[in-house]
Design goal:
By secondary structure, the protein is mainly α. The radius of gyration is 18 Å and the shape is elongated. The protein is built from four helices and no strands. The chain has one domain.
Length: about 110
């Protein structure tokens, strides 16, 4: 006989995938805006300098979306715990995206 525990949600869900993909897309949009606005890149950066930011920053955005998803337990409570959950979720999302942008642009546009 199989017993199922209805109290724990599945680790992977469609909502998790949607939040991770949204974070990835937002990271890609932010870094694309920054690196494709450079008309004359520094020759010291090399010919493929755009590859690292286009890989690192969207991955950081995906991790930020994962963090936002896992903070959902705190956001679902009522009262001040919910407020703290929302603040930590949004602040953590933007800090992760900011750090991903810094790591992606390190050595090129971020000196």
């Amino acid at each position: 006989m199989e017993s199922s525990n209805q109290l724990t949600p599945p680790l992977f869900s469609a909502l998790l995938a949607r939040r991770v993909l949204l974070g990835l897309a937002l990271g890609f949009a932010v870094i694309s805006f920054l690196i494709f606005s450079v008309d004359y890149p520094n020759l010291d950066w090399g010919p493929y300098w755009r590859i690292r930011p286009l890989l690192v920053t969207p991955m950081a955005g995906a991790c930020a979306g994962l963090f936002y998803h896992f903070m959902g337990y705190m956001r679902s409570h009522s009262g001040w715990i919910s407020v703290v959950g929302w603040i930590l979720s949004i602040l953590g999302y933007f800090v992760a995206l900011w750090m991903g942008t810094i790591l992606g642009l390190l050595g090129t546009m971020w000196n």
